[in-house]
Amino acid sequence: MSSSRAIKPKRDTQLSSFESMPERAPSVERPDAPVFARILGMAGLFLFVLGVLAMLFPAFMTDRTSAIPPAWGFAGGSVGLLLILYHAFVEPERQFRRIYGILGLVLMVLLGVGLRLLMFRSTAVMTRPTSLAFTNPQLFYFFGVPSLFFGWTFSFAVIRNETEQGFRSILLNVMGVVGAAMMIVPLVVGSFTSTVNATEYLAGEGVVSFLFGLVYIGSYIGLQEESSDRAHYAGLAMGALGALGVVVGLIRSFWPESNFLVPGGLILIGFSATFLIVSLAIWADWPVLVIARRELAAYFYSPIAYLVLIGILVTGWIMFNAFVSEIIDSGMQGGMLEPIVFRYIFHIYPVIVQIFIVPVLTMRLLSEENRTGTLEVMLTAPVNEISVVLGKFFACWIFYMLTWLPWWIFLVSLRYVGGEEFDYRPVLAFTISLLVISSGLLSMGLFFSSLTGNQIIAAVLTFVGVLGHLAIYIIKFQRDIREGSAIHEMLTYINFFDLWEMSLRGILAPRYLVFHVSVAVFFLFATIKVLESRKWK
Amino acid sequence: MIQVQNVTKNFGPIQALDRISFSVGKGEIVGFLGGNGAGKSTTMRILTGYLPASSGIARVAGYDVMLQSTEVRRNIGYLPESVPLYPEMRVDEYIDFRAKLKGVSRSDRIRRVEYCMERCRLRTVRRRLLGTLSKGYRQRVGLADAMIANPPILILDEPTSGLDPQQIRETLALLKELGQNHTILLSTHILSEVEAICERVIIIASGRIALNQRLDEIEADRSILLEARGPADPMLHVLQGIKGILSVKVRAIEDGVAAFDIVTANNQDLSETISHAITGKGWTLRRLEFKTRQLSDAFFDVMRIEDPLKYPQQIADAAAAPPPPPAPVPDPNAEAIQK
């Protein structure tokens, strides 16, 4: 009668009859052929060829006028090139990858490096037709530099999609070697030639070479596999080069009776320091840097980065256009007074852009983590609150400074296309003041973002905070606040527009920076305490 | 490895944990059970140092969770209940990111990432965006993250929720294997999982430890179920007279059939003696069963006692024995998330 089951107690385990099965993908992946991109690519090729023909037409057919003006040809060709590039970035098919990969190699090595090497031969060779004659340096500047750029973009696009190890490593290694050369050559020239030669080289081709070297080596490292040895050592080597450059630059600049510092020394030290910082950001696995890298990448994963960059680009373009026509107008009336860059930047539009950009960049940083609960995951890893806050702050800061890059590139084009020298030093002062001001504004945004799980609230609070600066600046113009009075002086210290104005006039007094730095320190400290407050509130 | 002494946690007026104490030894796999909002997740958050205890001491791997939080976090892998992830990252990127944060050295990193992705069966989705993963895959990513740095202690909040049946088994097998040289504290709502892999079970109810026992001890607790037709009182008398029977409880009397729960000394099987005694008196035996006490029995016994609204009688029974029944507690997890 008694149950037999009861006598032998059965220990039910789900694992008794368990055998592991091979892992299966949750769903079948059917890669789509990028039909749309191919159509765009084809249209791009058509436009490009047409554009190039239209540009070449006047050179060969001097007696007739082209149906398409060369300027339109240039515009069409550029758009065509962009479309082709888009296709190269999304195309997974092998044949296309090969074509684009070989195109990238040709552009990088034959045109880029080859034309630069040609500069060592003295005279121009092309004579017919006469309107197409270039000297060797011109060849390099007009064709070599763009080739280096497009060679990089095409190779980058191909390597991203390349699945075959062999071809991939050929492209990558070429990129690495060319990049290393472009990093080392300006360092060597800047270090070991006479001051005059070094300065001339660094201020001209050196900057271009450094920039390309940074881009090439950056992508060389970034395209290596995660945590690979090669990327690590390449990063270390870059850091060593940077350190060397900084040391040499400092020694040469501060050697008795040296006049190397401006601008050669600054360029050498600036770029070397950039190498050092980038290298540090690549190989160092300190939590601050790991978090900063992730946050910076997160900007580019979301549409925010692109919206902000496009917005800035458009504003910059409008400002630059107005600026150029102002220069042309004043040129007829006897020229413009230095510092002319003041007219470029100090205007209501950039100010409005600042008021919007700061909240947009900072609102997400901590409130998103609060809302989704990722903060819990983050803070249960062996990472302290200081690293989290500083990592996010640095990422935001770097991105903010990046948004100013288009403005400087416009200025560079003014120098080279306009062919007229102007005083660039206010730009340096302005950049430094920007670094300081933005540290204050962004840390305020970060603080508001840490208070709430709602991005909108964080954005509105930050918006009001930045608007407060504008309000202070406007209050200064009230009739009963006389210039020179204590209140006027005080208000000058606590808004950023006055600092903009002063730095753009070339004045950079540390006492005006103190307020912004202390604001940054205060808000960063407060943010850390807000994160810690879950432990004692 | 884990010691909890008199830990109390209040969220404002709500007492989520009330002086709980337990410890987990090295290499143990302990199941943490309890109803919704009983305080499981809160306990785990305290152990990971994310939330502080209102009072009491918790030590993990010999470090105080409040004072030596970093060392504690270096020694644990934590899988939170809802597995929050960054939706914009890819699976392998995320695991690599977590490995860097947890200080896995560069030489080990590739190997560890591959190993964890293989064990959590993530290799086929390695390039997917985390935001596009289903619940089960998110859970696997969370588990891979918890074990990436090979920490000696794993604290897993419902590691199998949302997984498919095959994957539940894979995960349990993995945990059992890890349990050979790791200490694991896992919470779950599925009792059979606990029976499958845990050595010990801690049941928490309304913020108190209601049961803390080895699984084989629970299963060693046996009782004899007897149903016989006849008058209840004389039968009770006869049963109490049998040598070796510790206690007899009348379960129910229906239509002249009486049911008894009989506990014997040393859990010996007295079925035959009882059968003899009952039939000898001319009563008819309907059912006689020597029962093993299952985990579910223990769990529901606890729940019954701990739910004062539904079973007021039980409270009266248990009133003498500590702990006294507490007031019902609203979900502290919801509160904690809001904070």
Secondary structure elements and pairings:
The complex is a heterodimer of chains A (537) and B (339).
Chain A: H1 4-7, H2 35-60, H3 70-90, H4 94-118, H5 136-161, H6 165-192, H7 195-222, H8 229-254, H9 261-283, H10 287-301, H11 303-332, H12 341-345, H13 348-372, H14 374-379, H15 385-403, H16 405-418, H17 425-451, H18 455-475, H19 486-493, H20 496-504, H21 510-532
Chain B: E1 2-11, E2 14-24, E3 29-33, H1 40-47, E4 55-60, E5 63-64, H2 69-74, E6 76-79, H3 91-101, H4 106-119, H5 135-147, E7 153-157, H6 165-178, E8 183-187, H7 191-197, E9 200-205, E10 208-214, H8 215-220, E11 222-229, H9 232-241, E12 245-254, E13 257-264, H10 271-280, E14 284-292, H11 295-306, H12 312-318, H13 332-338
Helix pairs in contact in B: 3-4, 4-5
Radius of gyration of chain B: 24 Å
- How do the strands of the widest beta sheet of chain B line up side by side? 6-7-8-3-9-10
Largest sheet of chain A: none
Question: On the 0-100 scale, what is the average pLDDT of chain B?
Answer: 83
Number of helices of chain B: 13
Spans of chain A of at least 5 consecutive residues whose pLDDT stays below 50 are 1-10
Shape of chain A: globular
How much of the polypeptide of chain B forms β-strand, as a percent range?
25-35%
Structural shape of chain B: elongated
Overall strand count of chain B: 14
| End-to-end separation of chain A | 63 Å
Oligomer: heterodimer
Protein structure class of chain B: alpha/beta
Count of helical stretches of chain A: 21
Largest beta-sheet characterization of chain B: 6 strands, mixed
